[in-house]
């Protein structure tokens, strides 16, 4: 048996989505900007996909949905263009974000710091969420933008987006949220909360890779990141990726329809898996599961290095993730776990298991058994190592996993 439990990294493209995309690679390949019938033939499908996205996130007619190549582009677009529009060409100089954003936000903020922008990286509490009053206390008259993820890719913890949105509205500060890990897992109702910009990525909800979107409230001004052929009303140039747009629209519709029922099923599997794994001694799960996306567990097993665990799970045909970087022979601690106050040893032991609507009960049973055996194996190895002189053996092998 093979078990894929890394759905926060990417998901399988739903076969219905693959089927819907197919004609746009073959018969309907025209450039939608061309005036001939080959070009215009795909227009109804593009319109349908845009409608599907509007409906899935309950966007208002006045809002804009612009397709991008991924959430990384959407996040870069907001940060870099707010910098141009409100810092270079305005009187602001400050951006507020958190310590635990995805690198597409954090690295862009570091880049903007090099251009002279002041960036505040807010701490999270022991649940891994940023508290609304913390956000409020760091906003100044010079703040151009607050950028805070809707839900964490690492822990699944859900930030109080509604409250933060109200604070930003009251203070007159733009608010961006990276909702990559929220769509298809929890309701994202953009008429129910105040957010100016929201980023999405289709491959996180069983759509194709290489397509994302940016929601822009009230179609407000945001200078383009990509200049060129003036596609998407000049907001994002580049020939439209028609097959992927069609795929993203359908994937979003499928991921959000009957959300409550689908998520209740995933939550039941996740809770059962968590309840079983937590029975192991010295095991911790990050965050209250009632405020977590229903598919995610970040679990730590004291004394069991995350990479070693990943390696053993991989040998058992189970795909999981650590979230800790492995760029060299030195294993790094999980930065999100450090941010929530875990000690250094514990921060080396995080394993992220993320389910999807395709995860089966058999896969969960298989994972529970293999996981428990792996912990026993690795604990036995570390206790035998503890009796010998320490060596660096084993680390390089574990690193090759990435
Ligand atoms: N934002 C969040 C919250 C993410 O989880 C990811 C990908 C991205 C942005 C980037 O999406 P992309 O489509 O532009 O690549 N997150 C992960 C992850 O957790 N493990 O691998 C990729």
| Form type | globular
CATH architecture type of the largest domain: 3-Layer(aba) Sandwich
Give the number of domains. Answer: 2
Number of strands: 12
Mean pLDDT: 93
- Percent range for helical residues? 25-40%
Structural class: alpha/beta
Radius of gyration: 22 Å
CATH homologous superfamily placement of the largest domain: Type I PLP-dependent aspartate aminotransferase-like (Major domain)
Largest sheet: 7 strands, mixed
Ligand list: ligand 7TS
| H/I helix tally | 13
Strand order across the largest sheet: 2-8-7-6-5-3-4
Produce the secondary structure layout.
Layout (H helix, E strand, L loop, with lengths): L2 E2 L10 H7 L15 H4 L2 H15 L6 E5 L2 H18 L5 E5 L4 H12 L3 E5 L9 H7 L4 E5 L13 H11 L2 E5 L18 E5 L10 E5 L25 H15 L2 H19 L5 E3 L10 E6 L4 H10 L2 E2 L15 H5 L10 E5 L6 H26 L8 H5 L3
Parallel strand pairs: 1-11, 3-4, 3-5, 5-6, 6-7
Antiparallel strand pairs: 2-8, 7-8, 9-10, 10-12
The chain binds ligand 7TS.
The site of ligand 7TS has 15 residues, from helix 4.
What does this protein look like?
The protein is α/β, with parallel strands linked by helices and 402 residues long. It folds into 2 domains: 3-8 and 259-388, Aspartate Aminotransferase, domain 1 (Alpha-Beta Complex), CATH 3.90.1150.10; 15-256, Type I PLP-dependent aspartate aminotransferase-like (Major domain) (Aspartate Aminotransferase, domain 2, 3-Layer(aba) Sandwich). Helices cover 38% and strands 13% of the residues. The chain has 13 helices and 12 strands. A 7-stranded mixed sheet has the order 2-8-7-6-5-3-4, with helices on both faces. Strands 9-10-12 form a 3-stranded antiparallel sheet. The radius of gyration is 22 Å and the shape is globular. Residues 324-329 and 391-402 have low confidence and may be disordered. Bound molecules: ligand 7TS. The site of ligand 7TS has 15 residues, from helix 4.
């Amino acid at each position: 048996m093979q078990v894929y439990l890394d759905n926060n990294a990417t998901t399988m493209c739903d076969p219905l989505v693959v089927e819907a995309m197919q004609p746009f690679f073959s018969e309907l390949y025209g450039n939608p900007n061309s005036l001939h019938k080959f070009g215009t033939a795909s227009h109804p499908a593009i319109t349908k996909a845009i409608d599907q996205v509007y409906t899935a996130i309950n966007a208002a007619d006045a809002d804009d949905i612009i397709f991008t190549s991924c959430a990384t582009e959407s996040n870069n677009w907001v940060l870099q263009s707010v910098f141009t529009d409100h810092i270079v060409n305005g009187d602001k100089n400050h951006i507020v974000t958190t310590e635990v954003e995805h690198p597409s936000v954090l690295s862009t903020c570091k880049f903007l710091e090099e251009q002279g922008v002041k960036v505040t990286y807010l701490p999270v509490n022991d649940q891994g969420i940023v508290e609304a009053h913390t956000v409020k206390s760091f906003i100044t008259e010079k703040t151009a933008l607050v950028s805070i993820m809707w839900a964490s890719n690492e822990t699944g913890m859900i930030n109080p987006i509604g409250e933060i949105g109200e604070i930003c509205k009251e203070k007159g500060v733009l608010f961006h949220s990276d909702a990559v890990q929220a769509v298809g897992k929890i309701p994202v109702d953009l008429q129910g909360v105040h957010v100016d910009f929201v980023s999405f990525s289709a491959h996180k909800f069983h759509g194709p890779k290489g397509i994302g979107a940016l929601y822009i409230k009230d179609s407000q001004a945001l200078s383009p990141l990509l200049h060129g052929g003036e596609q998407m009303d000049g907001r994002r140039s580049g020939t439209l990726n028609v097959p992927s747009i069609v795929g993203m629209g359908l994937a979003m519709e499928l991921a959000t329809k009957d959300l409550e029922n689908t998520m209740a099923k995933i939550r039941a599997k996740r809770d059962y898996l968590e309840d079983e794994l937590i029975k192991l001694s010295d095991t911790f799960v990050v965050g209250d599961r009632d405020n977590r996306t229903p598919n995610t567990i970040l679990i730590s097993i004291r004394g069991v290095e995350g990479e070693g665990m990943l390696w053993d799970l991989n040998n058992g045909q189970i795909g999981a993730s650590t979230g800790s970087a492995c760029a060299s022979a030195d294993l790094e601690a999980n930065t999100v776990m450090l941010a929530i106050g875990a000690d250094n040893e514990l921060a080396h032991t995080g394993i992220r298991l993320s389910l999807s609507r395709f995860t089966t009960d058999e896969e969960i049973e298989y994972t529970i058994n293999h996981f428990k055996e792996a912990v026993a194996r690795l604990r036995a190895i570390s206790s035998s190592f503890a009796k010998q002189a320490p060596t660096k053996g084993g680390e390089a092998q574990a690193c090759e996993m990435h």
